[in-house]
Amino acid sequence: MNQRSTVFLNSLAFVIGFSVVFSLVGVLLQTALERIAFDAVNVLRVIGGSVIILFGILLIASLKHSIPFLRSEHKLKVKRFRNSYATSFVFGSAFAIGWTPCVGFILGAIYALAATSPGAGFALLLTYSLGLGITFLFAGAFFSRIAGFIRRSQSVIKFFNIIGGLFLIAVGLLVVTNYIGIIATFLIPADASVNVSGQLNFTIAFIAGLLSFFSPCILPLVPAFLSYMAGTTAIEAKGTKKK
């Protein structure tokens, strides 16, 4: 197996690691909220939408002002295992638990969106993980070219906070006003057996995952992520040769 394939598979293990953590949070939300009454769902919708709008405003405001509490990062030390895939999986789990600045606003908005959709928490967080995971897998598949792309993106990456913030504000307004279902009927073919509002929520979660990768706090770290993956692969290769 060549280095590119091994780095890609390690990236896949990393993605599975943070997807498991996010999905478990989704299960907890789903379990806690799925039995609430219809009136309570409406209250959660207004509260959740307001929180999403707040996160959007804070994301834009973070361009000029640091918000330590919401932008804090908890770093976890990852133990290396003999198997590089196990190490990558644990690394992905630690990444999800510690998380990183800036993206916390988007992730928090997805948690709020999940709170407005009792019974769909697991699926929404899994969809978010899929959107974020695809970008990491793409980076792992083309790790030799991604560094150049990141260098070229430095001049425009600063606009992410504005784009991401406006996206969250728009989503929050749709949730608060309960227009999200109306918009969904225009974007998704209507079907009596399909919950179009739910489908739009999943689309939003997927797009949010993609946006998270291109945040000013994640994209610049991708070269280090790829170096870590390549280093883990190299260590395993040396261990194999010794045997």
Model description:
The protein has 243 residues and is mainly alpha-helical. The protein is 76% helix and 0% strand. It contains 11 helices and no strands. It has helices spanning 3-33, 38-61, 68-71, 84-98, 103-115, 121-141, 143-153, 160-177, 180-187, 196-213, 222-242. Helix 1 runs antiparallel to helix 6. The longest helix has 31 residues, at 3-33. The two termini are 17 Å apart. The model is unreliable at 69-76 and 239-243 (pLDDT under 50).
Strand content: under 5%
Task: Enumerate the spans where pLDDT stays under 50 for 5 or more consecutive residues.
Answer: 69-76, 239-243
Instruction: Please summarize the sheet with the most strands.
Output: none
Mean pLDDT: 75
Number of strands: 0
Give the number of helices. 11
Proportion of helical residues = over 70%
Order of helices and strands: HHHHHHHHHHH
Name the shape in a single word: globular
Task: Briefly say what this structure is.
The protein has 11 helices and no strands.
